[in-house]
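---------- Forwarded message ----------

FYI, see the NAD(P)-binding domain-containing protein record below. Original note from H. follows.
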Amino acid sequence: MTDPQNAPMPPVHGSPAPGTPEVVGILGAGRAGTAFARVLLKAGYGVDIANTRPPKALRHHLTIHAPGAQAVEPADVAARTRAHDGGAVILAVPQEELDEVDPAWVEGTVLVDATNTWQDEILPTWLEGAVIRGEPTSSAVAEHFAGARTVKALNHVSHSEFDDAAQLDLPVTQRRALGVAGDDAAARGRAMALLEAMGFDPVSLGPLAAGEVLQPEGPLFNRPLRREDLLPHAR
């Protein structure tokens, strides 16, 4: 019997159409953020991207690493994506810089937490506390960005292989599988639809806490997986 939460995804509501592409916001224009942007642009999405650089300074960086992405002020990263049912923003900044992200910037969106905790990284106090308590970091992210609907995804595939890992030309069942975890079922479904549109096979792991298996040193981190590898970890 097919697991309902991992049934084939229906067409994306508000998905890109000629002349009116859906827009995804990205916070972070490093190697991961620009890799996400390139794949989204190839899939037909518009991309608004922001980091600590002023948009004018960021534009040259994007012409090299994510041509077609639009540099915006951090406060405007969700401005265009909100037009599509509240929108989606990918959080791709180092966790040590999360206190520089104003929760108001992503309020009302589906916030895709693609961040990871690395050894010796200086973390915000609210996040360090969660790590010390042994809690999944996304639970703390969700609490900090309470105005958004947080989903854990995109963190367990290396940015260096992300472009090649996204394979739109293959049937969904033959693509690399990526896990998605979130307490809000609709937000989780939206993130899954986005991953499918980017060229992956999305697998729902269930609630946000289930995303712990996607973190560094977890059983699913940075491994080329298929759906059957992820399903045993679904709750």
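H. also flagged this: Residues 21-171 form a domain with the Rossmann fold fold (CATH 3.40.50.720).
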